[in-house]
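Now for one record.
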Amino acid sequence: MKKKLLVLLVLCNTILFADVSLNKYGHIERSEPQSSAEYFMENEEYYIDIEEKTLIGNSLFEIENGYLTLITIEENIPTWLRIYNKNGNLLLTKEFRKVINLSISENGKFAIFFDGGNVQVLNNSTLQLNAFPRSVIFDVNNFGEPILVDDNGNIVFKDRSYSLNANIRKVIFHNEFPLVITKNSIFRIRENLEKLYTSENEIFEIRIIENILYIVIKNNSTYKLLKFPDQKNIEKIDEIRFNKASHRTHEPIYSPLNYGAPNYPFPVGNSYGEIQQYGTLLYLHPGVDFLGDDFQEVYAVHDGFVKAVLTTGGDPYWRIAIANEDVSTETEGYLYAHLNQASITVNVGDEVYAGDLLGTLYPWGWYDFTHIHFARLQDEGAQWYGNWWTIDNPHIDVTNIQDTIPPTFENVIDNDLFAFRTNSGTYLDPNDLSGEFDIIAKCHDIENSDWRIDIWDIGFSLHPANDPDSTIYEQFSFAFDMPIDTYFSNYWTDIVLYTIYSRDATCYSIGNYDVREYYHIITNSNGDSLITEDDADEIFDSAQFPDGNYYFKVTARDASMNATADSMLVMFYNGNSADDGVLENNFLLQNYPNPFNPSTTISFSVPQTSLFVTLEIYNLKGQKVKTLDILECINCFDAKAMESLSHYSITWDGTDKNNQPVSTGIYFSNLQIDGKNVASKKMILLK
C-alpha cells in the first residue's frame, strides 16, 4: 500500500524572471515557476514521483540531464545518493557516511558535499568522484573546481591558499569568480583577494539569482535587501523588522518548543537511545523528538555560540548546533534539527541566549511526525562539522514537561511477564530455573502522544516468596543516558545496542513508524550507568541462592521520574539448601538507584560470624568522604531462607562527614569485614 507523504516544491534549472523579496525571518525569497514532487513510502522504502517518473529517495535535486536523490534518515546512519537521467533510469547508487550541505553547480554538471570525512565533488555526467580536505563551507563552479575553507580557516581554490583575519561564513561563485563572505565584507578572488563590498552591519545572507547578486544586511532587528545589478550600483528593494530574541534565561533547560510554557504536555515521538530500524538500517536514536506543528517556532534552551548551520541531506535536514562556550577546545552544546532553512535566524559565530528564536519546524510529511530533533552534543573546533557525539539524555533535564503516566510492562512470552535465557539462547521454564541466565523485560512509555517510546532507566531485585518485603539482591540495569557516536563507525553504538536490547527471534526489539517493541536485557550490567563491552558478559547466577521460590521485581522509570514496578514468581532449583553456605563469600554489595540524586540505598550481606563491619564512601581521588554507621541497620530485614547471612541496608544522602552535600561525580562504597576490604561498588551522583 502506498503511503502518501509530502508534496514539496522543487526549483527547475530554467527559471523565468521572478520577484525577489524578504520573508518574515529576514531571508531572501522569490516567486518563481516550480514543479511539484510527490513523496511517499511503500514497503518501508522512500520514493519520489516527479514528471511521471518514480525515483528512490526522500530529497531531490535537479541536475543537468537528470536528477540527484538522497535517502537521509537520522544522524548516525549512512546516506544513499542516487543519480537518474531524465527518463528516470538509475545511473549511480552510492553509500556515504553522510551527505552534508550538498549543492549543485550553476550549470547542474557537478555536485559538492561533505561526507563526514572529506569534501566530495561528483561529476553528474561521468559519475566520477574527487575528494578534497574536510569542510562545511564550500561551493563548486561549472568546471568542477571547488572552493572551500579548511580547518585553519584558510580559503583554498585552485591549489592556492588565501587568508583573512575574519571568520568566513560562506563562499559562492558569481560570473565564475569565487566570492568570500565574512560578517561585514564580500571579497572576490581573481589573482588575489579583493574587497567588493563592506557594511557597517552584519551580512546576514547572500544569494545569486539570474546572475544578480542579492544580500541581506542586518542591523539589530532590521533586515534590508540590497540588489547589486553590477559592481557600481546598489539598490535597496525590501526592508523588514523582526525581533528574534527574547533573551529569557533559565536553569535548568526548558523545551525548545513552547518555550517557557509551565507544565506543558509536550508530545514525544522518539526517546533518547531508543532502538530504531527503518528498512535494514539499525541504530540508536541520538536525541529526543518533541512533536510539534508545521512551521512552529523553535527556541534556544541555553546561552551559547553557533558552531554549525548545515543540512545532512535535503530541505528537511537543516540543523543548528550551539556550543555552551565560545572555545575551540572540546565543549558541550545542543542540537536543533529539522528546521526550515528560510527561517533560520543565526549564522556560525553568532552569540545566542536562552529563549532566542532559532527558526521554525520543517513540515514533516511522514506519518504526521513534524518534530524538533533535540540533543546534547560534545565537539571541538572553531566550527563544527557534524562529527559530534551526542552525550547524556536532555529529556531528563527539561523541567516544564507535564507527564504523569508511568511506563507500561508487557508480557514477554505468552503469560510470562519476564523471560529467562541462557548464553546459548535457550529459554528456561520460570518454574525450574537453574544456573546462569539473562532476564528479559519488555516495557515502553507513552508521553502525551500515541507513539511508544522507551524508558529512562530500569533495575531489578530479588525477594524470597515467603517474605516478599525483604530484598536479598538488588541491581541497577542501565539508564538511557549513554554517549552515541554519530557520524562515526557506530562501534560504540553497536556495543550499547546489542547489550541492552534483545534481538533474537523470540524477543525481537524493533522501532519504526509501524512497530515498536522494546525487549530489554536487564542483567547485562555491572550495576553502573556506563555500558561497555564487559557488560554484555554479565549474567544472573541463580546458584548463588538457595533453592526455593522467589519474586523477581523489575522497576522502570520515565524521564519525568514516573515509576512502574511489576514482579513475577519463579523457582530456583540448583540442589542448594539454605544452610549450604553458598553465599559465604558473596557479599552482594549493591546500591539503588544508580545514578542517584540526592540519595541511594546501599545493601549487602555478610556472614553472621563477622565481628566488625564498616562501610565507607570514597571519592574518585581515593579520599574518604564519609563513614556510614551500620550498627543501627544490623538485621534491618530478615531473609528467613538464608540463615547463614546477616543483611544490611542503609541510605547515603549524598553528604560528607560534615553533613554537607557533595558535588556531582563518581563515588565508591567500600565494605570492610573484620578489618579487611572485601567489596567495592561504584556509584554515580547526578545533580
User: Anything to note?
Assistant: The CA atoms of residues 430 and 570 lie 5 Å apart.
